[in-house]
Structures are given as structure tokens and as C-alpha cells.
Design brief:
single chain; about 675 residues; alpha+beta; Penicillin amidase (Acylase) alpha subunit, N-terminal domain; 9-stranded mixed beta sheet; 8-stranded antiparallel beta sheet; 22 helices; 25 strands; Penicillin amidase; Penicillin_amidase_dom1; Penicillin_amidase_A-knob; metal-binding
Length: about 675
């Protein structure tokens, strides 16, 4: 089985092999060479062993992973794979193991932490995938709503309904041939993820006699799952914001060394064992792992009045949907994509696809259980049969594409499957921009990716307009913001003034006596803290709290007026938004905080969704982890870019050579001509 490795001018690996198994091995090997530190961190994170070299800061995640039985779930799902898919995944793992030593030798992080590269097991790619997505559906939001209901009453549960601070989203759009200048469809988007160094997506090309696919892979996982172009058909996804994970209140009791759980049929034995987590620089920590008939216990335990368990589809079904991955590579038409998606489980996505014959696809893919509506909103009692799962939603929603289709995590196609969705600003703005043109090309769509209009500014500006009795400086600030074009451009001082006012309003609302009961979060594990902190919740729900669902007992007009008086002097200093809104990339290395990075355009609800946490920080931790345009008229005219570069090794020429283009909003060519590539020899 022969394989050859080429690179384009940006260091993107282009792999060519005699057959799919040799190609999978080559993909695993080049990933280990380019991303050894990244994928080894993810392997350890999926096993709950990362604190052993990252230290106490990683303990909360490791504890959660052990308790949720993530590695065991991956093993179960691997055991259930069909033989062909298992062999293909195994070939990838063989490649990773063959390349790790060389990759680790060029990655300084191993020496810095004393970590030695380990050995990947056949199920490790499934565990890595699950580790990326176990929190994707935002089930901790149910812990927040339970907290709100208990402290403010059930009627207050929806006050903070919005896209949560730790939920990943995306933009995506599909233009039919009649809306382009190429005579064929265009498919574009940008996944919004935590911005990491190295990036969460790996640009790659996989070619063998059966297929030739270019796309964005997840390092540590074979194939090209989310964004790909085979030359004949292309596909892309966004988070559907579906609700498919449930949190159950559990009543547990000890029976000697065993544990029992109260279910609908009375007390039943629960699984129980103890694991030890090694922690660099600290003593080992023991974790009691308990699993009831509902699922693994993720908070509390047998010695607490109530514990919480998590029920999630891969654990219930013993299936992670990996059979879809090799089928996607072989796809030639949207019908092939549609057929492959019958396997998809987690995460639940909205999928768009187009082919060279004019076929178009817009549908939801994944596994969503059928159960009581209250399961989607709050913690429900595990001993009540009314909250048991009753099968799976089928068929999944789909829609005909007429001219164009947009997906941006809003309450749209997937509405019957979810509870909370992103505000509709991004989706509406994308549609508005697309409808302004009729002959789009791949190169022109970067203007959509980088649009900075902030539709969410409306409610705050409306309240500000109605404020009376302001002092001269605050009145000047009001008039200035009412004239503002609502664009969150890095060089805009008006955008900075708006963001400063917004932050002051958020802090004042969060400190209001009406919300005092929510200020102290419940005693849940620290991994859930981003969903339970009051100020971020207020910041992301500000539009609703000032508009359609005002807080009882809060005079928002007076509050906004006081905030304007507070910040008026600072706003007059003419600080541009980019000086405040800087990139902060996450890097899995103790003490790796290098301070604020480059200046950024955009904001949370802009199409250019560079997210900060209003009221907490202006710095950006989440944004476009890649941008792409797939051209169905000619794949070579497709475009893409990632925040840093193709290689995860610091100091490598291709570690951050795409940063300038990403920051400028430019897209780079997708190279497809083998004659223009450089072959690498081992």
C-alpha cells in the first residue's frame, strides 16, 4: 500500500494513495507529524488524564470525563462499528502511531511538560470526537434554568433565553446556480469555535482511485466530517442547536460497597467504581464513578440528597455515527450525502450540500430522542416514568432550496428539535447581503463572511434614545451612538463607545437586587461554570432583557441612563474597538497566557462573530475557526483560510502564515493541481 505526501504553498497536506486504507494511514501519519501535541492533548482529555501533565487547572475536565464515562462510551461505539469502518479507523490509528514519535520530536510542548507520546487505541478517534462534542448541545443550560426556576420561580426560566456563552455555532449559506455568476452552486460558511492554537480544523486533501476530497478535518479523526468538496459534490454544517441530552435528578443510596438508584420501577442497582486522577504538582484525586439506568452521574453522589445524571445518545445507542465518514468521502451527488447522513448521531447538525448536476440539500442530521417537553428545559426526576425516552425523531426536518438557503443557529429548520437558539441577526443579515447580489463568485463572498453590522444593538439604543435628564457628556454620548452605523469595525471609536456602555448596563443589571438570588451559582462541578455565572448570562440575554422580556422590578430606562453617565467620560477618549477587542487563543500548556493578541473586527451577533463576554471582557475567545467557499463550477476556484496555519508546531513556517489573511478577511486559493504542489519524502 503506497502513499505520497505533497504540500501546497501554505503547507496544507495533499495525500495520494493506492486505496482508502493506505490513504487513512497516511492521514493519521501526517496529522501526527503536524499536530502531535494537539492530538495527544485531545487523547488525554478524552481519557481524563490531562491533569497529569497540564496540572490542577485540567482537573475539573478530567473529573467530568471520568464521571461521564466518555472513554468507555467510545469503546462501546467502536465495538459496534461495521467491520469495514472499523478497519478504516484502525488504518488511521496505525498512521498516528507511526508518526507520533517524529511529530513529538519537533513539538517543544512535550519537553516543556515532560510528556511522552503515547499509543493510540482503535477507539481513540471516537473518544476524541466525543470529547469535542460532549458539551456541544449545551445541557448545562438546563442547570442554569433549574437555578433560575428555584430562585426566581418557573415563570422566570425564559428571561435569559439566548445563544449561551459556551455554545459553538456557525454561519453557512448555499447559493443555487441561478444566484451565482459561475453557472453552478456556491456553498460557504465559517464554523464558530473556541479559537485554539493550533486550530481545531485541519486543511487537508485526501485522494485515491475511489475519491479525491479537499476539506477541513478534525485532527485526530479520520476523513473529512464537516466541510468537504469531492469535485462533484460539496457539503457543510452548522450546529442545529437541537436538544438531545437530558439531565436527571437521581436519588441514590449506599448498600454496603454498592449503590442503588431510585427509578420508575423502584430501587435498582447502579454501576459503581472508583478511579484515580494523577495531577501534576498535586496529590492524586479519587473519583467515584456511578451510573444509573438513566446514565452516568455527573454531579453529586450517593451521599448527597440529590445527584444528577446525564443521558446522551452515543451512550444509549452505542453508536457515534462514524459509518457516515467514509461514505461522505465517496459521495458524488447530494443524494449520496443524504444517504450517508442516515448514520449521523452527534452532534446534531444542519447540513447543506450541492453537486455539479444542480442538486441541492438542506436538512438536519443526527439523533434526537422523543420525550416529555420538560426534559428539554430543566432537570427532571429520574424516578418518574413520564420523563423516559420514547424512541427517536424521524424523519429529520428538511427544506427545499429556492435560490438560496441560510443557516446560522437560528430558530429555523431545527426549531421542532430544540429549546434555545441563537438570535436571528446573523441569519437575517446574511440573507440581506446575499439578496443584494445576483451573480456571486467565490472571491466575492468574503464580504459576507466579514460583515460587522450589529443588529443586536437595537434594543439598547432604543432605550437610550428615550432617556431624559442626562448630563452634557452623557447626552453627547447618546447622540453619537444614535448616529452610529452599528458596525463593529476594529477602527471604530463609536463601536468601542457602544461596547463600553453595553458592558456597564450588563454589570448594573447583574448587580440589581432583582437578580440577587442568582448571584451565587449552585454548587455544581467547575466544568459547568461558564453556563452558571450571572454576568455572562445577562450579557448574552441583554437584547431580551431590554426589549421583549424586561425584568420585573427593573427600571431599564433609569439603569441605562445611569450607565451612560458612568461611561460618558471614558467614551470621550476615542478608543477604537480593536484596542479593546483582541484575540485570546487557547493553548493547552501551563502558563501559556501570552496576553492579548491582534485587534479584531466583529462581535457576537455580527456575521463576523468574534465573541466576547459583555460585562466581563471585551477580549475574544471564540470566532471563525475557518472560512471557506466551495465552488461547484470549478473546485480550483474554491477559497479557504484558517486563523493560524496548517501546522501546529510553533516556529514552523506554516504555523501562522495564514493569520494575516484571516485577520484581513481574505480567502486563500484551494490548490488542486498536483503539478503545482511540492512532494515531501520521508
Amino acid at each position: 500500500m503506497n502513499a505520497r505526501r505533497f504540500r501546497d504553498p501554505w503547507g496544507v497536506p495533499h495525500l495520494r494513495a493506492d486505496d482508502p486504507l493506505a490513504l487513512a494511514t497516511a492521514q493519521g501519519r501526517v496529522t501526527a507529524y503536524d499536530r502531535a501535541w494537539q492530538i495527544e492533548v485531545e487523547r488525554h482529555r478524552s481519557r481524563g488524564t490531562s491533569a497529569a501533565f497540564l496540572g490542577p487547572d485540567a482537573l475539573g475536565w478530567d473529573r467530568f470525563v471520568r464521571q461521564v464515562r466518555l472513554d468507555d462510551t467510545a469503546r462501546r461505539c467502536h465495538t459496534a462499528l461495521d467491520p469495514a469502518t472499523a478497519e478504516w479507523v484502525g488504518a488511521y490509528v496505525d498512521g498516528v502511531n507511526a508518526g507520533l514519535a517524529a511529530g513529538a520530536a519537533r513539538s517543544p510542548e512535550f519537553a516543556a511538560t515532560g510528556l511522552r507520546p503515547g499509543r493510540w487505541e482503535p477507539w481513540t478517534p471516537l473518544a476524541v470526537w466525543l470529547g469535542h462534542h460532549i458539551l456541544f448541545a449545551g445541557f448545562p443550560g438546563k442547570l442554569w434554568r433549574e437555578h433560575v426556576a428555584r430562585r426566581l420561580g418557573p415563570e422566570a426560566v425564559d428571561l435569559f433565553a439566548t445563544d449561551g456563552p459556551a455554545v459553538a455555532g456557525s454561519n453557512g449559506w448555499l447559493l443555487a446556480a441561478e444566484r451565482t455568476g459561475t453557472g453552478a452552486a456556491l456553498l460557504a460558511g465559517d464554523p464558530h469555535r473556541f479559537l485554539e492554537d493550533p486550530g481545531v480544523y485541519q486543511q487537508i486533501r485526501l485522494a485515491c482511485p475511489e475519491y479525491d476530497v479537499v476539506g477541513l478535518a478534525v485532527p485526530g479523526v479520520p476523513g473529512i466530517a464537516h466541510f468537504g468538496h469531492t469535485g462533484k459534490v460539496a457539503w457543510a454544517i452548522t450546529n442545529a442547536m437541537a436538544d438531545y441530552q437530558d439531565v436527571y435528578a437521581e436519588r441514590l443510596r449506599r448498600d454496603g460497597t454498592r449503590v442503588q438508584a431510585l427509578g420508575p420501577d423502584g430501587w435498582r442497582p447502579a454501576h459503581r467504581h472508583v478511579e484515580t486522577i494523577d495531577v501534576a504538582g498535586a496529590d492524586p484525586v479519587q473519583v467515584e464513578v456511578v451510573e444509573t439506568d438513566r446514565g452516568p452521574v455527573i454531579a453529586g453522589g450517593p451521599d448527597d440528597e440529590t445527584a444528577l445524571s446525564l443521558r446522551y445518545p452515543p451512550r444509549v445507542r452505542g453508536d457515534l455515527g462514524f459509518a457516515a465518514l467514509p461514505e461522505l468521502l465517496r459521495a458524488r451527488t447530494v443524494a449520496d450525502i443524504d444517504h450517508a447522513l442516515r448514520h449521523w448521531v452527534e452532534p446534531v447538525n444542519v447540513v447543506q450540500a450541492a453537486d455539479t448536476a444542480g442538486g441541492l440539500l438542506h436538512r438536519v442530521a443526527g439523533a434526537v430522542p422523543v420525550r416529555h417537553p420538560e426534559n428539554g428545559r430543566r432537570v427532571v426526576p429520574g424516578w418518574d416514568a413520564a420523563h423516559s425516552w420514547q424512541g427517536w425523531h424521524a424523519p429529520m426536518p428538511r427544506a427545499e432550496v429556492v435560490g438560496r438557503a441560510v443557516m446560522a443557529n437560528e430558530r429555523g429548520l431545527a426549531a421542532p428539535l430544540g429549546v434555545e437558539f441563537a438570535a436571528g441577526h446573523r441569519a437575517r443579515r446574511i440573507a440581506e447581503l446575499l439578496d443584494a447580489g445576483s451573480a456571486w463568485t467565490a472571491g466575492e463572498l468574503a464580504t459576507v463572511h466579514t460583515d460587522t453590522y450589529l443588529g443586536a444593538a437595537g434594543p439598547l439604543l432604543t432605550v437610550l434614545e428615550g432617556v431624559t435628564g442626562l448630563g452634557p457628556a452623557a447626552a453627547a454620548l447618546r447622540e453619537r451612538l444614535l448616529r452610529w452605523d452599528r458596525r463593529m469595525a476594529a477602527d471604530s471609536t463609536d463601536a468601542a463607545a457602544y461596547a463600553t456602555l453595553r458592558a456597564a448596563v450588563v454589570r448594573r443589571i447583574a448587580a440589581h437586587p432583582a437578580l440577587a438570588e442568582l448571584a451565587e451559582p449552585p454548587a455544581y462541578p467547575e466544568v459547568f461554570a461558564p453556563w452558571l455565572a450571572l454576568t455572562p448570562r445577562v450579557g448574552y440575554a441583554l437584547e431580551h432583557l431590554l426589549g421583549a422580556t424586561p425584568l420585573p422590578g427593573v427600571d431599564v430606562t433609569a439603569l441605562v441612563g445611569a450607565a451612560a453617565e458612568e461611561v460618558a467620560g471614558a467614551a470621550a477618549e476615542e478608543v477604537p474597538w480593536g484596542d479593546l477587542h483582541r484575540l485570546v487563543s487557547w493553548r493547552a500548556l501551563p502558563g501559556s497566557d501570552a496576553g492579548p493578541g491582534p485587534r479584531l473586527d466583529g462581535d457576537h451577533d455580527c456575521v463576523l462573530a468574534t465573541s466576547s463576554v459583555p460585562g466581563v471582557t471585551h477580549r475574544c475567545f471564540r470566532g471563525p475557526a475557518a472560512r471557506f467557499v466551495w465552488d461547484l463550477a470549478c473546485r480550483a476556484d474554491s477559497r479557504w483560510v484558517v486563523p493560524l496555519g496548517a501546522c501546529g508546531v510553533p516556529g514552523d513556517p506554516h504555523h501562522d502564515d495564514q493569520s494575516a489573511a484571516w485577520l484581513a478577511g481574505d480567502l486563500l486559493p484551494v490548490s488542486t493541481d498536483w503539478e503545482q504542489l511540492t512532494e515531501e519524502r520521508d
